[in-house]
Design brief:
2 copies of one chain form a homodimer.
Chain A: E1 6-8, H1 17-32, E2 40-43, H2 45-53, H3 62-77, E3 80-81, E4 87-88, E5 90-96, E6 107-110, H4 114-124, H5 127-145, H6 150-161, H7 174-192, H8 200-214, H9 218-226, E7 235-241, E8 252-257, E9 269-274, H10 278-283, E10 289-290, H11 294-297, H12 299-316, E11 320-327, E12 330-338, H13 343-355, H14 361-367, H15 370-377, E13 380-381, H16 383-388, E14 390-394, E15 396-399, E16 402-408, H17 411-419, E17 424-428, H18 436-441, E18 444-447, H19 455-463, E19 467-469, E20 474-477, E21 482-485, E22 488-491, E23 495-499, E24 504-507, E25 512-513, H20 521-533, E26 537-541, H21 545-553, E27 559-563, H22 574-602, H23 608-623, H24 625-651, E28 656-660, H25 673-686, H26 691-706, H27 718-723, H28 725-744, E29 750-755, H29 761-782, E30 789-794, H30 797-801, H31 803-806, E31 812-815, H32 817-825, H33 829-842, H34 859-873, E32 878-881, H35 889-897, E33 902-905, H36 910-923
Parallel strand pairs in A: 3-4, 16-17, 17-18, 18-19, 26-27, 26-33, 27-28, 28-29, 29-30, 30-31, 31-32, 32-33
Antiparallel strand pairs in A: 1-2, 2-7, 5-6, 5-7, 8-9, 8-11, 9-10, 11-12, 13-25, 14-24, 15-19, 16-23, 20-21, 21-22, 23-24
Helix pairs in contact in A: 4-5, 5-7, 6-7, 13-14, 13-20, 14-20, 15-36, 19-33, 20-36, 21-24, 22-23, 22-24, 24-28, 25-26, 28-29, 35-36
Chain lengths: 929, 929
């Protein structure tokens, strides 16, 4: 039997998206539900695939089936395709499974030619309408089906409009329209070498082919690659009877949402125009009316539409985005689809629909994209200030968030200003990899050209910075370093403000405000449901008490990462830290020698003379300048660190706090090598042997001795703790003194000490043993017992590969996925993002920036291995993640599947993580519930 | 039944090493073979373990069993322990399963007291001998059993010797010896507070306990830790009848090897002394006679010994190291053990014994340590030059090889001179981690103190540098920067020569010679057998034709790694390379823009005006300064690289050659950043705006723009190839042009192109596809077909983790284990070795330097995974290793087990690898043979 390539709308339903595309399934569903949908048929996605498979020709039977379907349309409508007496006109549209930019748009009015035009004019008694419809057909067909540049038609229209008083389309007379048609046909012939087809079947057949061809158009292919959509899906083609909203004042067209897509309010939201076609609403030539006004203008149509909208929302159990037309008082539904909405609306609608009994809580949780919450919690422009600001243009909302700064027109300037501490917005015609160094320091990015998948957009989202892209309404003159928009000129160094969430661009600076989490009632309700559902704990990374308090407000259930060394950078502490560092190596050498001597001695401890000599040696070492300076600095740091920890423990009363011991290479705390080198060179040339020169030379020598070729892989983390045990011992002492002090005040403390960068279990055997001894000594001094854990970060592949051995020591694992990604890929993030990584993402060599989205295949494999093997040895092993991935929804999904106990992320990501964790649990069919 | 703690020598055999220790099993075996062994018994290792288990006391039954065994001795010898009439004297020695420094030595003459002394004097008619034996007992017992410092006894002896004419032990009169005994007893009493025991049973019981205790002595524990010997083994104790070589001129003692342990020559090799005890031979007081002279002195003893030696060698099927004594013309065998031998001897003996039919070829292959071959092929001192050189001292041969250089007495000086290109020998009293930076650049290391496991020795072996350690005969004055030895003084900056294979130190410089591999007939024969046995191929790393030729001489079966960029560093090429680098980024940006423009254009290719504009744009880009400079440099490099490859292909006629495309970050080819910064700063201060300043500034800016925080993890390898495809395309063109040219001359070429640092299969998808197109284009131009492979290095963990995906593209894998170790551990080798890694090895945190010896647990796990998963996708996948581990025997063993096809190592390691591969195959019980 011949394959069925064509389905009437009456033959399909919403579950046939694969075969009929989203649009085809949607109109079929509406048709089946008895809604007033103009009749039509859908050519299947299979037909599209077959078309390509057999070398770009219609598969056998397709055309005959289409003709038969057209015949059915004719019977239903009483009109006939190509018959001047009562002509049937149709629209032809693409409709893939997923809506996709770059696919062919609509061609309207197919079926018009000089003969049927006469019939339409006669039947509608509206000659102007008929000629206008005909010129629209030629224009759309020429541009969309044949790829003639739009401006060639616009040029003709402009010429005639210029001759009218109002300069508008609607001012064109019938005669003018006739001439426009004539000129359009000439353009068509000139561009393509053939006449515009009069044969209506040729029109429809060419339009169908154009839809097929657009499946492999460059933009569509790029879009699918970017969004990881298969190229095998194919597109369907929808052929549908035309209805006309422009047949007079009882005709019209409109779009509407069943609820407000900006706020989520439960009320019809949309607009309409009488005597207009769909494209007129979009074109913005006339100002449309609010949907509520339809009640006055066309009460019957309004009531019918209201009922239809309610019915559709109930049918689809979600907000619908509707397109409708009424022709001579008769309502037609052209399209329904799930309505896109803002973050705020998404949350309110989800919560409201649960309360209305439309959906379950679980469904509500899956209706909100976790990152939408992040958007809600991003800094926003103060609405009052924004209203007063000078609007310049609206571009693509390519990467959310609001930013204010001075305009810089090249990456070098942006970098220079940014590094000097200025807030900069990088403004470029478009960006390319040479601009990345400027993008890295900019607060936001504004481009004139390029879409949602342009370089600027991809990089900005990768960096988490606001970006407005493709702002075609501005003109950037990179040479003159200015841009023009809305009649204004913005020069380099002048303030602008961009809203990456809305795409708006303003002149001047606008104050930003942080939203108040507590007041987000719906969000909190939704997150409460999320908490009931999720298995993963959500902890936060916080270095200071203020961060801990913030994290707790957002619902964090613990601190997964407190970076002790961040406290070292504070201005008052840095001199002490430097004193410690500069003396660490010589002091430790003296102490090590002493230790060795004492070990040798212990064998012959009866010898009093030797004991005496040893005591003197010990005294001498302890009295040495280096040891005194080193141990003195540690003593000064102890109470400062203790105070920090007391603050965090107090803030996290009752919850666990993981404190990581010192991690970065020590030279990070010293002055810049290059600056010192220039300073010393300059002072030497000036010739004076001053004390300042000597000091600078000493500091340079110290910095040089600590310099590393690849500090990321050098003396840091546990290696530092083993080399200079005094530092980590001081930190552990501070942690346990703080814990005891705070505990004495009735606060519940759960300290967990985290050792970074372990690669071999022996490293833990050495350092953890020594550090636990310090912990026990402190508790014994204080006469208290505090339950604690010692554990390790897993951040080099070897730690993951040997997790079973490491778990013999570590009571918990925390995946430091930033470092683990660096070592698994062999990427230094600092170098890679600027030099090749973002380009790799742009060129699709990597599916995503692995520092943003966890590489589940590679890094994830190590994580799964470590969890499995670690728990074999220690079933109660506590496992979490504290890299930036802890706040990324897709990574959180992975963490759930990998069986982690918690994710830890920055405080502002905690709400995101709570929802993402719930979605992971809901999507996990293996879980016990 | 009571456990058997004591075995008579007649009850054991050589297979009972676990229970009786090596020495006990050896004497038991000899006893069983009917050899003249003084009778005795062995207390088992189990007794030792039990002794510690129950709190340092003799286990039940031990003492009674020992007394019973002693009684059997008495019956056999007719003497009685403690009986003044006919006293039995015994020796007490430790004897663990493995011989081990730090274990208790021998105590001789146990059983002497004032009463039995009289008996001995009477029976031997030698009063002096009796008193001398007694003072030796007190001295050895006091020192070895009781831990009294040796010098306290030496001091007494020296006092009396000073009163004699000859100043020798043998000059002491009987009266003097009596006074020595009196004074020794006083020392004993003063040190320990008790009298020296007269009770002979107490003597033997305390000696046994001392042997037990020495099992947990510090040196023994350290040694076991270092050599990974279990602490559970325990030591046995051997109690044996004393025989006396010092009973007059028909008595004597000696040591001998059954073959020459230096050359392997088949002839008894050893020496003896008449009228002497074993320790006299070692002490070097009298010059011993060659063993051959025994034939004249004591023909019967000699014949008996000759027969015994032959019998023992046949019995043990290996060279034996024998100790013997003859007492009044009667031969006693005291010990036999497998003889240690030099590399040369090991090889000759193994080959000879095969020819003699004593052992099989397989056994011969297992008799030689692969690294001994390396020693044989290391540069050695020219023997003639060495004989003329001024000998200074002999220390421990801590790390093999010969080195000549100027003495530097501190690490900073060594570093400074070494970096300036001087050959330096670092001379230190002993080394510690602060000296490592000097050791890294030194040609060799000489220390006064410290043993085979001292810091200097461990680090030097780790670095593969010659080291003479523990040279107690020199005195290093680090302050005055000189050392004294053999009456001479060597000052800083003066030449010295050290032989790390022999431990010799000489003044002045000595010429070194490279041995002639071809002339090593035995070695070549042995390696021939190895080739028959091994499954692993042995390839070499060679960058130049001369290296390839050398490698082939050593038996390499291919080139596993040819680093193309090494050719870039040559002086004539560097300016061209820099021209390429400095223009690469701007040129590539222009070319990329052009490419994008042309892609956009292709959609509308009918537009002639646009085509013309595009052609002009193309012309402009190609004419730009940057593109001309960049492409011009590539054009200049092409013929140079082609010539290199032609040379290598010619050298390797018929064998595969793997050429790696450019790998290091480009800034490695540019001048030093710091030097430029100083230069620019200096020129700026001098105030003139010269052309030189401008050039220096431009170069500095270029260097800064390419600088990376962690270049190891930056823009290198395939990332470079993807960013600047022109470079790798030039290289591939050079490879295939060379292959075609050489092939046309009848040489068989097998080029394999290796892409470094792949982390994601898409990187190969992009670059391998483009490069294979170049290869095909060249072959088509040349009208030739050359079989080739494209493959990837596996050197970041992600590549190993995703090997299945990578193998879809790569036809071969080559493990770059240097990088893979760096990323798996998160160690930068450049930083780690100096800063903490060697210390980690010294402190046993790591079992070995993972850059020397492959980390089988961590890195190895990734390798196994990659081999398995890669071969699943591509069963014929060729897999090798080209990191430094390819020449390390234990790593080669791992590579065999992991199923690799070949190992590739430096040319000089090829013979080592051939043997190691054979041993791996012999040890592999799973192989098909």
């Amino acid at each position: 039997m011949e394959k069925k390539w064509v389905y009437l709308f009456t033959e399909g339903n919403k579950d046939m998206r694969d075969l009929l595309g989203g649009k085809g399934a949607g109109v079929a569903e509406m048709t089946g539900a008895g809604l007033p949908v103009p009749p039509g048929f859908t050519i299947t996605t299979e037909a599209c695939n077959e078309y390509f498979r057999i070398g770009k020709q219609f598969p056998e039977g397709l055309w005959n089936q289409a003709l038969a379907a057209m015949h059915t349309l004719e019977e239903k409508t009483g009109k006939q395709f190509g018959n001047p007496e009562n002509p049937l006109l149709v629209s032809v549209r693409s409709g893939a499974k997923f809506s996709m930019p770059g696919m062919m748009d609509t061609v309207l009015n197919v079926g018009l030619n000089p003969a049927t035009l006469e019939g339409i004019a006669r039947l509608t008694n509206n000659e102007r309408f008929a000629w206008d419809a005909y010129r629209r057909l030629i224009q759309m067909f020429g541009k969309t089906v044949k790829g003639i540049e739009g401006r060639k038609f616009e040029h003709v229209l402009d010429k005639y409009k210029a001759k009218t008083a109002g300069k508008q389309d609607t001012d064109l007379t019938i005669d003018m329209l006739k001439k426009v048609v004539e000129d359009f046909k000439a353009v068509y012939k000139k561009e393509l070498g053939v006449d515009f087809p009069d044969d209506v079947h040729e029109q429809v057949s060419q339009a169908i082919e154009a839809v097929f061809a657009s499946w492999f158009g460059k933009r569509a292919v790029d879009y699918r690659n970017f969004n990881k959509i298969s190229h095998d899906l194919g597109t369907a083609v929808n052929v549908q009877m035309m209805v006309f909203g422009n047949m007079g004042n009882t005709s019209g067209t409109g779009v509407a949402f069943t609820r407000n897509p900006a706020t989520g309010e439960k009320a019809l939201y949309g607009e309409f125009l009488t005597n207009a076609q769909g494209e007129d609403v979009v074109a913005g030539i006339r100002t449309p009316k609010k949907i509520a006004e339809l009640k006055n203008d066309m009460p019957e149509v309004y009531e019918q539409f209201l009922a239809t909208a309610a019915m559709l929302e109930k049918h689809y159990r979600d907000v619908q985005d509707l397109e409708f037309t009424f022709e001579n008082g008769k309502l037609y539904m052209l399209q329904t689809r799930t309505g896109k909405r803002t973050a705020q609306a998404a949350i309110k609608i989800a919560v409201d629909m649960v309360k209305e009994g439309v959906i379950t809580k679980e469904e509500a949780l899956q209706r909100v994209e976790p990152m939408q919450i992040n958007q809600l919690l991003l800094p926003r422009f103060d609405e009052a200030a924004k209203k007063k600001a000078a609007f310049l243009a609206k571009g693509l909302n390519a990467s959310p968030g609001a930013a204010t700064g001075v305009a810089a027109f090249d990456a070098d300037t942006a970098e220079e200003w940014g590094k000097a501490g200025k807030a900069v917005i990088l403004v470029r015609p478009e960006t390319n990899p040479d601009d990345v160094h400027g993008m890295l320091v900019a607060r936001g990015i504004l481009t004139q050209r390029g879409g949602a998948t342009s370089h600027a957009a991809v990089v900005a989202r990768g960096l988490g910075k606001p970006c407005v892209a493709g702002t075609e309404a501005i003109f950037v003159d990179a040479e003159k370093k200015l841009f023009k928009a809305n009649g204004q000129t913005v020069k380099q160094g002048e303030f602008i403000s961009i809203d990456g969430s809305t795409g708006e661009v303003f002149a001047g600076s606008i104050a930003t405000i942080a939203p108040d989490f507590k007041k987000e009632v719906d969000l909190n309700e939704l997150l409460g449901w999320a908490d009931d559902v999720r298995r993963l704990g959500v902890w936060a990374n916080a270095d200071y008490p203020r961060d801990a308090i913030q994290a707790r407000k957002f619902g964090a259930q613990g601190i997964g990462l407190c970076r002790t060394e961040h406290m070292f950078f504070e201005t008052v502490r840095l001199p002490v830290v430097r004193q410690m560092i500069l003396n660490a190596a010589p002091a430790q050498a003296l102490l090590n020698n002493l230790k060795r001597a004492e070990e040798n001695l212990s064998k012959k401890s009866e010898d009093k003379a030797m004991l005496k000599a040893a005591a003197e040696a010990r005294k001498a070492v302890k009295a040495s300048h280096e040891v005194k300076a080193y141990e003195g600095a540690l003593k000064k740091l102890l109470p400062l660190q203790r105070k920090d920890f007391e603050g965090i423990f107090t803030a996290m009363d009752g919850l666990p706090v993981i404190i990581r011991l010192i991690d970065p290479p020590l030279h990070e705390f010293l002055p810049s090598h290059d600056e010192l080198l220039v300073e010393v060179t300059t002072m030497r040339l000036k010739g004076k042997k001053t004390k300042a020169l000597k000091e600078a030379e000493e500091m340079l020598a110290a910095v040089e001795s600590m310099r590393e070729q690849n500090p990321m892989l050098g003396l840091r983390g546990i290696r530092l703790g083993i080399t200079y045990p005094g530092i980590t011992e001081m930190q552990v002492r501070a942690i346990f003194e703080a814990a005891c002090n705070v505990s004495a005040k009735g606060i519940k403390v759960h300290p967990e000490v985290m050792i970074p960068l372990t690669g071999h279990y022996n490293e833990l055997a050495v350092s953890q043993t020594a550090l636990e001894a310090v912990a026990k000594a402190v508790m014994s001094e204080k006469g208290m017992e505090i339950a604690y854990k010692f554990g390790s970060m897993i951040e080099v592949p070897r730690a993951a590969l040997t997790a079973a051995e490491i778990a013999k020591y570590a009571q918990f694992f925390s995946f430091g996925t930033n470092d683990l990604t660096q070592t698994t890929y062999g990427y230094s993030r600092d170098d890679a993002e600027g030099k090749f990584l973002l380009r790799y993402v742009e060129d699709k060599i990597l599916p995503a920036n692995p520092f943003q989205e966890l590489d589940q295949i590679g890094v994830g494999q190590l994580i799964e291995m470590a969890v499995k093997n670690g728990r074999k040895v220690r079933p109660e092993l506590e496992v979490g993640i504290c890299g930036e991935h802890g706040g990324d929804p897709s990574s959180i999904g992975f963490c759930h599947k990998a069986g982690l106990n918690y994710v830890s992320c920055s405080p502002f990501r905690v709400p995101v993580a709570r929802l993402a964790a719930a979605q992971a649990a809901l999507g996990d069919t293996t879980r016990d519930k």
